Write a sequence for this structure.
């Protein structure tokens, strides 16, 4: 059995299938880890979500910010954004089942046998892996409960920017979610900044990639993540035990898989044409049941 971690797909289904052909993926035995952002902006979110859901236990998925945005949109809290490509998915006859499956995915995955952690964006420098798991479970328990719709109503926003154990209620859950699904930069005191999206070297003065903070408590853990397409894999860069796997497929870059069940890790990539704008939906978007 082989295990591969795959960066953000974001609805680029054709490229995903091409990548699986490249690695000679065996659906009856191999396992695929996905760093989140399965959907949105790319042209085939519906096909992507169906395919990964149907892999069953052979797929390990953590939620990304676009996946959470889909949930908020599906349950009619958030109107689709101008660049969203979710209408086909939300109008599909099986959209209820797909959304329910997605809502039950975790925010972090830890495999002690492999010594690996997977998260969509990052881990706060003050958090150990065990702490990150505990905080992720706080959000996951809300997502899987009848309070999940209220969560979407409070999920958006960049504040608070500083972690404190005194945070409570929706600000606490929003902060945890932002760190795990949106983090790129923070200052030396751990104050997060969600706006800069460029590669290291382009950020405002005083900001540092989250994984470069010297006193980061998770520095000894090996962490797989996506989200940061402008970071990309670079053999000349020191990544401090982290492996960025979003290589910008959506933007005409590459879709990346890394074999993680043996050392050294081996990387596979396919080229991706820039995603095309989808055609206007033929049917009106359906509202997902809140049951």
């Amino acid at each position: 059995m082989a295990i591969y971690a795959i960066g953000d797909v974001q609805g680029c289904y054709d490229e995903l299938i091409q990548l699986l052909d490249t690695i000679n993926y065996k659906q009856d035995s191999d396992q695929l880890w996905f760093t989140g952002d399965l959907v949105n902006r790319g042209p085939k979110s519906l096909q992507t979500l169906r395919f990964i859901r149907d892999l069953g236990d052979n797929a390990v998925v953590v939620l990304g910010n676009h996946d959470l945005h889909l949930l908020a949109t599906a349950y009619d809290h958030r109107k689709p954004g101008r660049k969203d490509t979710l209408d086909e998915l939300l109008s599909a006859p099986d959209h209820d089942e797909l959304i329910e499956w997605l809502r039950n995915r975790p925010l972090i995955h830890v495999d002690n046998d492999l010594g690996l952690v997977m998260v969509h964006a990052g881990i706060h420098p003050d958090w150990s892996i065990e702490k990150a798991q505990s905080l992720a479970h706080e959000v996951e328990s809300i997502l899987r409960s009848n309070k999940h719709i209220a969560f979407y109503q409070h999920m958006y926003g960049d504040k608070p920017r500083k972690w404190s154990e005194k945070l409570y209620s929706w600000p606490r859950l929003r902060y945890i979610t932002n760190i795990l699904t949106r983090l790129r930069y923070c200052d030396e005191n751990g104050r997060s900044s969600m706006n800069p999206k460029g590669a290291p070297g382009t950020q405002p003065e005083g900001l540092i990639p989250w994984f470069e903070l010297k006193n980061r408590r998770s520095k000894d853990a090996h962490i797989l993540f996506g989200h940061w397409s402008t970071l990309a894999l670079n053999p000349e860069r020191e990544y401090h035990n982290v492996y960025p796997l979003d290589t910008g497929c959506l933007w005409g870059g590459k879709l990346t898989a890394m074999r993680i069940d043996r050392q050294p890790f081996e990387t596979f990539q396919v080229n991706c044409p820039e995603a095309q704008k989808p055609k206007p939906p033929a049917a009106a978007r359906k509202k997902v049941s809140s049951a």
User: Anything to note?
Assistant: The chain has a mean pLDDT of 92. Helices lie at 13-22, 45-54, 65-74, 87-90, 95-103, 129-143, 148-155, 169-182. The chain is about 25% helix and 15% strand.
